[in-house]
């Protein structure tokens, strides 16, 4: 495991030099500021957290390790379009919030095991289809983007606990019974 949290480290990070057996890399709350390549991550990697740095450039999420369960790239300076259509089936949590990512997003081909997806505070736009979210999805954060249009919220997974849509132009009806245990837990 690589754990470099809050060390105020600057400079660049070359992920291709990670040991082939590493399972978790946490390089967060630093001042790293290079572009990064995710294509050469070790196959054994289960968690990668590069949050709260100044990494920049585009993100290619198409060739992530098959065993990856958590990917946190939030609070950086990544830009450009990003595809969510070829994520590894093992991925449970993806945090891309607070960057400058653009374009539309496809939420209909997310991994079945995904529970948490954070896309907030970016420059995403277009319509959003939430009718085919993974059955275990618990948290979906789309707030503070330029999403717009009528959205069918009638098929949200029963596992959904939090749905954040603030500061978007999405419209539609959300049925309370769609939230499974969310409203039951609020009354306990």
Describe this structure as you would to a colleague.
With 188 residues, this protein is mostly beta strands. The chain contains one helix and 16 strands. The protein has one helix spanning 182-186; strands at 2-3, 10-11, 24-26, 31-32, 47-49, 56-57, 70-72, 77-81, 93-95, 100-103, 116-118, 123-126, 139-141, 146-150, 162-164, 169-171. The termini are far apart.
Give a short synopsis of this structure:
The chain has one helix at residues 182-186, and strands at 2-3, 10-11, 24-26, 31-32, 47-49, 56-57, 70-72, 77-81, 93-95, 100-103, 116-118, 123-126, 139-141, 146-150, 162-164, 169-171.
Major sheet characteristics:
8 strands, parallel
User: Do you know the CATH topology?
Assistant: Leucine-rich repeat, LRR (right-handed beta-alpha superhelix)
**In terms of per-residue confidence, which ranges show pLDDT below 50 for 5 or more consecutive residues?**
183-188
Spatial shape = globular
- Number of strand elements: 16
- Which architecture would the CATH scheme give at its second level? Alpha-Beta Horseshoe
Subcellular location: Cell envelope
InterPro entries: LRR_dom_sf, PGIP
Using brief descriptors, characterize the structure shown:
188 residues, Leucine-rich repeat, LRR (right-handed beta-alpha superhelix), eight-stranded parallel sheet, 27% strand, disordered C terminus
